[in-house]
Structures are given as structure tokens and as C-alpha cells.
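Hi V.,

You were right to ask for the full record rather than a summary. Here it is.
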Amino acid sequence: MFRSIVDDIKFQFQTGNTITRLIIVNVAIFLLLVIVKAFTRGIEIDINEAGDTISLADRIMQYIFLSQDPVWDLKHPWLIFSHMFTHVGLFHMIFNMLVLYWFGRIAGDLLGDHRMLPLYLFSGLTGALFYLISAPFFYPEGSTLHGASGAIMGIVAAAGMTAPDYQMRLLLFGDVRLKYIVFGLLVIYMVSFLNMENQGGQMAHFGGAAFGFFYVHMLRQGSDLTLGFRRMVNYFRRPKRRPVQIAKRRVPIEVKQRSGTRQRDVQAPPSPSFMDYQERLDFILEKIKKSGFDSLSEDEKKFLHDASQK
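Predicted structure:
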């Protein structure tokens, strides 16, 4: 049974989209930390010559969570990324993964699956920056940051910015437009911030959302802030190959002559230009913004799906 489950997870990771892979990675790290805490329970270690001790589990977390101490972070640079894949609370993890799935599916369809990983990472980095700037004012004795909330809020904001009138069905509220859901989440975080609840975490939420809004704004201006990252990933991912010259396809047509009919080859008509493709994509996105995703025809939905895979 367990082997079958592992095989299913491997299959989903290999064939699923970026959002599916992000969820699998987050859940896997959460389960790993649960196992680590279970096996290190009750183990204490010395942290200085004065005899102060700390649990082994907490010591391990120091090498995963982002600290508000910039010197510690510079000595352990992976913390800037590891913290946004780390959860220690079950309900925190479940809530984040549900939000990532709901909004990531929408953002991936509208903006393209290839943009989801850099959007997740850049939003998490912006959230971490907001935390590092603000944490000394809220936690004089020090604190740490963990969780994917900041990264996920960037995807949430990007989805709401791209298709504000897209409708989602909520359990107790029925169909609600995306813009109101995003606004509601920001209000909840603001209320928690004003009530002095997890102020550093709320600043990370705001930072992630700010990047999501700004990213879509720049994308509409023709500037993709994730393009450099994607080019770098593609450079290391794709094996270098010698360029292969592909012959132009030619199709036979009939040409009438005085002596009869003969065939000759002519070049196939050119494919639609990039501008035609971009104009149709912009038209579909504008239609979603005004009337929602359900207003699209089957042909438009297929075109949008194909565009998201490029």
C-alpha cells in the first residue's frame, strides 16, 4: 500500500503542474519535520559555556527558519529560501496548501504555469524583506520567520489582479468574486496586525501580496520580472545541443498551363504572427476580467490552456 502511495506521489510530481509540485514539497518537508521532532523529543544540547541548553529540535529549526538577525542569515544563506517551505503547525500547513491550490490553479491558467515557481519565490523573498525590516521594532529579543504564507499571498494577489471578477464558490458564502476574497484576506491580516498578533508574519503577508500586485502591473506594461530567473533555470535544465536546420514544409498545388496540368511546390502560408497571438490573449484576459472565466467559449478556454503551457 505504501509503495503504491509513493508511486502515485512520484507520478504527480513528474506529470503535475508547478502548483502540484510546490504542494508536494511543502507537505513532504512538514512530515519530515514531524518525524524529526518525534525522534528528538526530550533531547537537550548545550549552546554556550554558561550551560544554557536548548532542545535538539529547536536547534535544527534554527538552521531552517529565517532569523531577524541578518548576521546569522548571511552565514546561512539558504534560510532565505528554506523558511518559505517550512511549516510546524498542522492547520497552518493545511490552510496554506488549500489557498495555494485554489489560487495557484487560477493564476497558472491565466499567467502561465511557467511563471508560478518564480512568482512563489519572489513573493516569498519580498515577504522576507518586509519581515527583516520590521521585526526589530516588534521583537526586541529576536524572532524567526517560517511558512509559505508570504509566497502564497503573492500568487493570491496576482490571481486577483489578473481576473478580479472571476467567481469562486465558497462553502458558506456561495459564489464570490476573486477581488473580494483577496480584499477579505488582506483585511484579516490587517486586523491581526493591529491586534498585535504575529506582526512579523503579517508584514511578510503584505510583502508577498505587494509583489504579486506589482508583478501583474509590470506584466501589463510589457515587463516580466521573472523572465531572467526562468532563462537561468532553462539554461541549466536543458542539455546543450547543436542547432538543427529544419527544412521549410512545402505543399503541392495544382497550376494550370496550356499544355495541361502539372504540380509544383510552394512554401506553406506563414503561421499567425506573434501580435495576433498576443492580441487574442489580451482579449481573452480582458473578457475574464469583465465577465468571469465561465463567459469564455470552449475554443477560448482551449486557447488559454495552451497558452499557459508555453
